[in-house]
Amino acid sequence: MKMSEQSTNKETVDLSKVEKVLEKYKDVRGAVIPILQKTQAEYGFLPEPVIDYIAQSLNMSAEEIIGVTSFYAQFHLKPRGHHIIKVCCGTACHVKNAKALSSKVREKLKININETTEDKLFTFEEVSCVGACGIAPVVMIDEDVHGEISPDKLNDVLDDYKKLGV
Amino acid sequence: MPLENKNKIKQPENETQPVVAVCLGTGGIAAGGDKVFKKFEDEIKKLTLDASVGKRVCRTAKTGCRGLCARDVLVDVTIPGLETLTYERVTVDMVPQIIEEHLIKNTPVNKWLAKEDYHKFHDSQQRLVLANCGIIDPENIDEYIVRGGYTALKKVLETMTQRDVIEEIKKSGLRGRGGGGFPTGEKWASGAKYSADEKFILCNADEGDPGAFMDRSLMEGDPHAVLEGMIIGGYAIDATSGYVYIRAEYPLAVKRLRYAIQQAKERGFLGKNILQSNYSLDIFIKEGAGAFVCGESTALQYSIEGKRGMPRTRPPQSVEAGLWDKPTVLNNVETFGNVPIIINRGADWYSKIGTEKSKGTKIFSLTGKVKNPGLIEVPMGATIRQIVFDIGGGIPKKKKFKAVQIGGPSGGCLPESLLDSPVDFESLLSLGAMMGSGSFVVVDESTCMVDLARFFMNFCASESCGKCPPCRIGTTLMLDILIRITQGQGEESDLEILEQMSDEIKTMSLCGLGQSAPNPVKSTLRYFKDEYIAHIRDKTCPTATCAALHRYEVTSEKCTKCMACVRKCPVKAISGSTKEVAFIDKEKCIKCNLCYEKCNFMAIK
Questions:
Q1: B73, B133, B202, B213: best mutation site toward chain A, by most A Cβ within 10 Å?
Q2: Spatial separation of the C-alpha atoms in residues B171 and B276, rounded to whole Å
Q3: Tell me, what DSSP letter sits at residue B544?
Q4: pLDDT tens, B243-279?
Q5: Radius of gyration for the alpha carbons in chain B, expressed in angstroms and rounded
């Protein structure tokens, strides 16, 4: 079987990216998690053909790999939006009304937790703690931490991202 | 015990240039620290090029977390020979004036200098482990070395046997800072007993407790101190390699630690034949993937191996068969941070700090409803009052202190009557809380304790790995009961069931997550039972947090007619004036809770 390209019912997935990742980790012990992390960074999520390919290369079953991906919150088996909104729901944020921030996202973008907007611009998640409790409540958008944020300020920040687009 | 002032910020010796140090921890960066730093660099570059402005050569420095994140961006300006001055809430626009007046004319911009409570925040602490945080540039190994870095490692490798190191740590009384408080020296001694072709020293940087960021700040602010402690630990147990297991949610800490490892290797502090001692150690970073349970030692090891992070039964203990079934010693970030201090200053000196059974200092992340939230370090045995009021500056918005939640989802809530209790391993346990990793969340009178218990139980139920039924099913059932109570559907018998389930889950669960999951419920039942009863019997939430029980009525004795709620109401359901107590029209009210949050006088129920 030709390994570099595999097709699913709907789409063809380019496997050269995952090949490179696997090459990099071929001598590393216990590398399943870093491989999945780096692969997800390439594809944005973990497409099924890619998981099959990883399983085959590591001489593991696809079930074992899925077992790992489903255990850890970081892995996603479905495509996600361009920007990831993480509303922190840690203790410090909780007592400073993080709930209102989640409601704001829900109301403004019309999506629920772990859903993606139709234009694929935003995915909305609640996370347990981003460790920036000194500036609670906190919303993380991609890698940027927005501290001491109010629902109104969050509204403006989301507008800025909308303007930026993809 | 009085907290002494030992923390005056000193500038590194031999400094002849003025130094502008910008706080660039996660908090600093979130507040715009990057931009402020860039502006300082640009402006200073521009000015030194122009000789007529002044010949003074300036240096900008990045530092880690200064502790008081709410005042970010914090900027220290040091003119050689003079005391360091700190500016708070610095923005890009303020930079030119600070340079012009302070750096060039030597007249500090007084109006922007940190106020008295910033100094009180610092001066009430005893910063040992955090001594370098916020002072040195964490990406520059030389700054760590100038302040005594890697001297402990040198001393160990040149003058101490492995047994000496273990004895010294034992004598110091150092106990694990990750939660349980197991004596570090004992752990190392049992780790040293087993020999194998491979042995591992692990650093647990999977700081998953919501409300905790001590380890993140230490790794971001002083990564070499953690590495140095880990290398010393590695030497003591004769480890062949080391892993730092760190949360992927901490990108900056990962970056700085990687950088530190590379620099330490270049200088011969790490790698083959460290400082010509014949001892070799490599340290690798493993990023976690988002699972709270991986803070448990056996789960953490499975995760490093690339498996699902589910704890296993013990024995065998990790020191006998841990990572890849080889002898393994696991310590927390802060524990390693203490090690170089003990080696440098001696166990006798170290063991004078703290209480009889809890030695040294402890770092807490002080957050929640407190005026100065931030990262603090106090001697063990400091009282809750000292932490909340002396350092934290008390409760904002004229509200009243209600409780402090110590130890995250494994810890408990302690009420006002216990404000003068000392904070150490034994005292906290006896009161129903736990040191945990050190989250310290202050709660005021507007927080519902039943809802807080529900919050933690929700966390534990969703983070339970699912392996053992007492934890998997037990936490879910307890959560169901708590949700019912917060929705006004609680029954009198629920409290008894909660108590009983707490004990069962505690005794029957496989790992620490399940064993400690009932603690927030147990402690709130112990100290705030009346709130549970109000929810169950009277169907009211005394703090109006639980939306299903809201009444939205104004208590006329408490209303000051300030009209804050009237202005805030988005549907104009509140009428009132400066002469008239506010009134909420229930027909129009959409129960958005904004009026309740806005009211500073707890007048809305």
A1: B213
A2: 28
A3: S
A4: 999 988 888 899 999 999 999 999 999 999 999 999 9
A5: 26
In sequence order, the β-bridge partners of residue B287 are B246
d(CA B407, CA B437): 6
Interface test with B, best of A65, A86, A93, A135 (most B CBs within 10 A): A135
Q: Which of B69, B375, B459 sits opposite A128 (nearest CB)?
A: B459
All residues at 6 or more sequence positions from B605 whose CB lies less than 8 Å from its CB, including other chains: B540, B544, B551, B552, B553, B554, B555
Give pTM, 2 decimals.
0.88
Question: CA geometry: angle at B144 spanning B142 and B150, to 5°?
Answer: 100
Question: In this complex, do A145 and B208 lie within 8 Å of one another by their Cβ atoms?
Answer: no
Contact by Cβ (8 Å): A65, A54: yes
Kindly give the residue spans of alpha helices, DSSP state H, lying in B147-272. 151-159, 162-172, 184-193, 214-221, 223-237, 251-266
Q: Give B-chain residues touching A133 at CB under 8 angstroms.
A: 211-213, 365, 367, 373, 439, 441
Other CB atoms within 10 Å distance of the CB of residue B514: 27
Tens digit of each residue's pLDDT (9 = 90 or more) over B51-64? 333 344 566 777 77
How far apart CA B554 and CA B547 sit, in angstroms, is: 16
Which of chain A's residues have a Cβ under 8 Å away from the Cβ of B373? 92, 133-136
Cβ distance of B367 and A136 shorter than 8 Å:
yes
Q: Do B104 and B121 form a contact (C-beta atoms < 8 A)?
A: no
Nearest chain A CA: its distance from B244 CA (Å): 14
Substitution target in A54, A133, A154 with the highest count of B β-carbons within 10 Å is: A133
Q: Give the number of residues written for chain B.
A: 605
Q: Which amino acid is at A38?
A: K
Q: Residues A108-144: pLDDT tens digits?
A: 999 999 899 999 999 999 988 887 887 889 999 988 8
**Contact yes or no for A50/A43 (Cβ under 8 A):** yes
- Beta carbons of A131 and B247 less than 8 Å apart: yes
Using CA atoms, how far apart are residues B251 and B198, in angstroms rounded to an integer?
A: 30
DSSP SS3 for A84: strand
| Buried-exposed string A60-75: b where 16+ CB fall within 10 A, e elsewhere | eeeeebbebbebbbbb
Residue linked to tokens 């906190």: A138
Residue B305: list chain A partners with CB under 8 A: 29-30
Peptide bond into A18 cis (omega under 30): no
ipTM for this prediction: 0.86
Helix (H) or strand (E) holding B414: strand B412-415
Q: Do B70 and A91 touch (CB under 8 A)?
A: no
- Strand, coil or helix: what is B545? coil
Q: Name the minimum distance, in Å, from the CA of A122 to any CA of chain B.
A: 19
Nearest to B386, CA basis, from B397, B370, B408, B407: B370
B176 DSSP β-pair partners: none
Query: At how many degrees (to 10) do helices B529-536 and B493-508 cross?
Result: 130
